[in-house]
């Protein structure tokens, strides 16, 4: 797996490079700003990119904008975003095209090497990997949206889907049968208005509904709705 890293903290980027090399990944470029990241992606065409939300010069959202542009220009390039804080707007923006291949992890997660590498591989394969802390903070939602119709167990299943887990792992985490997980997920799709025609994209669109507060049936995947607030 070929990786481009966009991270201005030299200690962190060097650590990521060593970690990934030890896990059999090839880090083809390490850059410190958004423009250099876009150039590296165009030159190396990596399998996945790891991008810090905040990059020079303003250290606000250059990384996110560079990641979104890279996905537009390079066929939904899988992106794993790293952030110091939970910022819901950015998670929603990344998932808004409904194509998958997106991860959003807090930097503290890197220290849990097994979890981090598993998340990286899931994203590279076209799945999603949302940090459990991101998911936990998003559980406090406004009333009146389609998610309110989900049962507690269905919401738990959806939260684990948002973290990128497959059915077998969800069953293990919830201590229920595979059939029960299948039933919960089928109910989630039905309640969020995600038809069988969505097939492989339904899990991604369900996660987007979870993050954005709107069901996939309400509108085709497009720009993320503006958030009410940014969680920090």
TrEMBL record:
Keyword set, alphabetical order: DNA-binding, Phosphoprotein, Transcription, Transcription regulation
Domain named Response regulatory: residues: 2-122
SUPFAM superfamilies: C-terminal effector domain of the bipartite response regulators, CheY-like
Domain (HTH luxR-type): residue spans on this chain: 143-214
Pfam family, one: Response_reg
GO molecular function: DNA binding
Gene3D superfamilies reported in the protein's UniProt record: 3.40.50.2300
Membrane spanning stretches: none
Stored CDD domains: LuxR_C_like (cd06170), REC_NarL-like (cd17535)
Sites bearing 4-aspartylphosphate, chain numbering: 52
UniProt GO BP: phosphorelay signal transduction system; regulation of DNA-templated transcription
The protein, known as: Response regulator transcription factor
Lineage of origin: Bacteria, Bacillati, Actinomycetota, Actinomycetes, Streptosporangiales
């Amino acid at each position: 797996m070929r990786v481009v890293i966009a991270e201005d903290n030299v200690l962190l980027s060097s650590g990521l490079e060593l970690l990934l090399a030890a896990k059999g990944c090839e880090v083809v470029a390490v850059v410190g700003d958004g423009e250099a990241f876009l150039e590296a992606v165009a030159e190396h065409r990596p399998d996945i990119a790891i991008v810090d939300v905040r990059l020079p010069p303003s250290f606000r959202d250059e990384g996110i904008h560079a990641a979104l542009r890279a996905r537009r220009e390079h066929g939904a390039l899988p992106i794993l975003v790293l952030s110091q804080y939970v910022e819901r707007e950015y998670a929603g923006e990344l998932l808004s095209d409904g194509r998958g291949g997106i991860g959003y992890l807090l930097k503290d997660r890197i220290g849990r090497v097994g979890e981090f590498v598993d998340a990286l591989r899931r994203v590279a394969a076209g799945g999603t990997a949302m940090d459990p802390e991101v998911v936990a903070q998003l559980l406090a939602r406004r009333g009146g949206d389609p998610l309110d119709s989900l049962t507690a167990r269905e919401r738990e299943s959806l939260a684990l889907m948002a973290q990128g887990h497959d059915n077998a792992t969800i069953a293990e985490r919830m201590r229920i049968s595979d059939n029960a997980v299948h039933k919960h997920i089928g109910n989630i799709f039905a309640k969020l208005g995600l038809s069988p025609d969505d097939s492989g994209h339904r899990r991604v669109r369900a996660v987007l509904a979870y993050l954005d507060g709107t069901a996939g049936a309400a509108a085709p995947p497009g720009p993320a709705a503006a958030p009410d607030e940014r969680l920090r």
